[in-house]
Design goal:
Blueprint lengths: L1 H7 L7 H20 L9 H25 L1 H33 L18 E3 L3 E3 L1 H23 L5 H23 L4 H16 L5 H24 L1 H8 L3 H12 L10 H11 L23 H34 L3 H25 L17 H30 L1
Antiparallel strand pairs: 1-2
């Protein structure tokens, strides 16, 4: 028995399978961005590739640091990080809705620069951009996992009242940043946060009644939207607010891209043309045949399709599925309920982004500003996911140690 206890205190066991998957994703990201050089017009493409390599290097270092510190430190730090990030979101809100409104449209607080109409980023000279909402996603998953675990540990009986109490506990933390992110506006991140939180609540042991209610409300919302879009376009436009035309054009471009290939349907039409013309093996690296918008970020999957054809896209899908299945296996192995809830949130976040990004490229879903995790270019998104995966690496290590302990005992 003593020998078994000593076994638990052995050095951490790194999950080399998970690290290998991330390394292959890094190489895929670098090759994809390099292949998009001829399509990138907004910045120096070589500089973007160097920055992506730097972000990946920093990401692996951050993941190693988290593995050194341990999950207890990270979960204890989560609430402090929440308030810091919430302060950053409030700062962006003040810049967009108070400073700009009273001092002129072009005025913003220091380090704040709107991009494509959204006030979501800080710009630091010599360092780069920082998007608080990307890190808030991970922090909210950590806080929600702790709330669910504490609630289930202390509840006396399963009841509808207990479930409602859990919802209140969770959403009093989630709603403030969610509202601030929504009005930036960044609808994509809001949907990702909601999907991950809903997935965690679905795994928390709440009654099936709430799941059926949620599904019913979703179907009702889709039905009402479809009816208004077809039969009362003006009312739907008024409900969407000041940028209703832009949002509804996204829907029109999705449903009928060929009706306006130079405007509303341009992004989807060019993505489908790029992938559809590539065949089995693609046109090759850096072959500039069709101009793909946002080639290094939102449409990186279309770049992969144009360059490497069906084989390249299948490889990317299998790579994403390998990561998802690995996280699912870690969740199954761990005995700690808080870790299970946390992994379910991260997995929900990953699955939604993967499905939405790939789905919008092939025309299954409307086009949004959601990137493909670990493949698309982006510093804040990449670092936030490395923080999330670092915590899961600790969970995997602990799960393997416990299995060794049981085996030795």
């Amino acid at each position: 028995m003593n020998q078994a206890l000593l076994k638990v205190k052995d050095p951490k066991k790194y999950d080399f399978v998970l690290v290998t998957i991330l390394a292959i994703m890094a190489i895929t990201s670098f090759v994809s961005i390099y292949s998009a050089f001829a399509l990138i017009t907004s910045e120096n493409p070589t500089f973007l590739l160097m920055k992506q390599i730097m972000w990946y290097t920093l990401g692996f270092l951050v993941m190693s640091m988290i593995m050194y510190l341990g999950n207890d430190v990270m979960f204890n730090f989560a609430k402090l990080a929440y308030w810091v990030l919430l302060g950053a979101l409030i700062y962006l809100f003040i810049s967009k809705y108070i400073v700009s409104r009273f001092m002129g449209y072009e005025k913003n607080l220091p380090f704040v620069t709107p991009i494509n109409g959204a006030t979501s980023w800080f710009q630091f000279p010599g360092i780069g951009s920082f998007q608080p909402s990307e890190f808030m996603k991970v922090v909210l998953i950590m806080i929600t996992a702790a709330i669910i675990d504490d609630h289930n540990t202390n509840k006396i009986v399963d009841s509808y009242e207990s479930d409602i109490q859990l919802f209140i506990k969770v959403f009093k933390w989630v709603l403030p940043p969610l509202i601030l992110i929504f009005i930036q506006p960044d609808t994509g991140v809001c949907i990702i946060i909601l999907f991950s939180i809903i997935m965690m609540l679905a795994c928390s042991g709440i009654k099936n009644f709430w799941l059926f209610c949620g599904l019913g409300l979703f179907l009702l919302a889709v039905g009402i939207f479809s009816y208004l879009y077809l039969f009362n376009h003006s009312l739907l436009a008024s409900l969407f607010g000041s940028d209703s035309l832009y949002k509804l054009d996204r829907i029109k471009g999705w449903l009928d891209p060929e009706s306006d290939i130079l405007h509303t349907g341009n992004q989807l039409y060019t993505a489908l043309m790029a992938m559809g013309s590539a065949g089995l093996t693609g046109h090759g690296i850096q072959e500039f045949l069709i101009q793909i918008p946002e080639a290094q970020t939102d449409f990186i999957f279309a770049v992969i399709g144009q360059s490497f054809g069906l084989l390249g896209t299948l490889f990317t899908v299998v790579l994403c599925m390998s990561l998802d299945l690995k996280l699912l296996r870690i969740a199954a192995l761990t005995k700690t309920t808080k870790d299970k809830y946390y992994i379910s949130g991260v997995l929900g976040m990953l699955l939604f982004q993967q499905f939405q990004n790939i789905g919008m490229i092939i025309g299954l879903l409307p086009i949004t500003g959601i990137t493909l995790p670990f493949i698309s270019y982006g510093g804040s998104s990449l670092l936030s996911y490395f923080i999330a995966i670092g915590i899961i690496c600790n969970t995997s290590s602990k799960a393997h140690k416990l299995s060794d302990y049981v085996y030795e005992a």
